[in-house]
Amino acid sequence: MQTETPKPGDRSTTPIRVLVVDDQSFMRIALRQILEADGDIYVIGEARDGIEAVKMARELKPDAVTLDVEMPNMDGLQACTEILRDASPRPVIIMVSAHTQAGADAAVKALRFGAVDFVSKSSGFATTDLAHIDSELRLKVRAWVKPRALPQDDFDESRATDERAGWRPNLIVIGASTGGLQALTLLLANHAPASMPIVIAQHMPDFFAASLAQVLAHDTRQDVQEGSHRLALTPRSVTLIPGAGDGIIAPCQTGGFELRLVNGSGNLHPSVNALFESAALVASAPAGIVLTGMGDDGAKGTAALRRKGVPVLIQAPATCIVAGMPEAALAAAAGCEVLTIERMAGRIQKWSGHATGELSSDVARNTRS
Asked: Residues with Cβ < 8 Å from 181, sequence gap 6 or more?
């Protein structure tokens, strides 16, 4: 066991204290160097398996734990459950997953058990990609340990853009990144199945979409599916674009829309901009929703939708885990609506012709449980 105490002269007077858990000594060293690179995060301990992690989390009381998924003696999934059950105060847990379907399944299950986020050890270029981890891990630790305070529910909806009598979208496109799973769960669980297709670009690595779709379907009682090339987008369906690539909307030969998977440029996939811009081009009456996330992906797509004169709903930045994407969208286009997720769900209810607050019995039971 290794522990350190912040030294005088450190940049932050309230450093973030992190416990690193990985069975490989190389990864523990690498994660320590990545986390401590900017001086505001300190690794206070290192554990080699889940058993050590549970014990050290109780003793050291870290602010955050980076938790490997696949380990001997006790894996990351069981360790996540026991840490969140036993440690006080409860730390933020970020799963660090291998680039496999099994690793993705376990990481997403951990999110259901209380972990807040995941980072893949790999990219499309390397089995273990430290540059990829470096680009995400510190940002996610900071975002989750020091989230923004939630404001009072006092948002003004007077700038509504869809109040034309009888107007309804024929497609809803949603973009999300860090904190997106929690936001999507809340959004989908609070409205009945929509009368139009919903397509989601949630930033994620390869292998994760199938697991995320399964979890969202279970937790929201919606028809959530992983997208595939030329998949027909049907009413009452929710489609997740697979990770590590992009998805665009195209006309379907039998009418309506289909999803087409493409190899996009840039570092963030699936691209929110690619999804939104294609929806603006193809659909006669699309609507957009921008949820929590880092960076500015979705800003150009939001502008394209607003040029078409259709509504774009933006999650209130103060309610986001990371407000980069919502703030960038607001800066890129005038006339967007700033709403809480609950009010977004109410808007989808209205667009679908349901009374506000009307949920299917299955969704209502799941929301209360």
From this structure: 111, 202, 212, 215, 216
Does the annotation count 63 as an active-site position?
A: no
At 250 the three-state DSSP class reads strand
Q: Could you count the other beta carbons within 10 Å of the beta carbon of residue 27?
A: 20
Q: Could you report the per-residue pLDDT of 228-258, keeping only the tens digit for each?
A: 999 999 999 999 999 989 999 999 988 899 9
Torsions phi, psi for 99 (to 5 deg): -85, 60
Q: Which of 203, 237, 246, 269 is catalytic?
A: 203
Terminal Cα distance for the chain, rounded: 40
Judge whether 297 counts as a catalytic residue.
yes
The active-site residue, picked from 120, 123, 177, 237, is: 177
Pair 232, 252: CB distance under 8 Å: yes
The CATH code that applies to domain 16-145 is 3.40.50.2300
Give strand pairing partners of 48: none
Instruction: Of 69, 136, 135, 72, give the one whose Cα is nearest residue 99.
Output: 69
Spell out the domain ranges in the chain: 16-145, 171-368
Record the pTM. Answer: 0.87
Position 17: which residue type?
R
Q: Is the dihedral of CA 213, 214, 215, 221 positive or negative?
A: positive
Class of domain 171-368: alpha beta
Residue 203 appears among annotated catalytic residues = yes
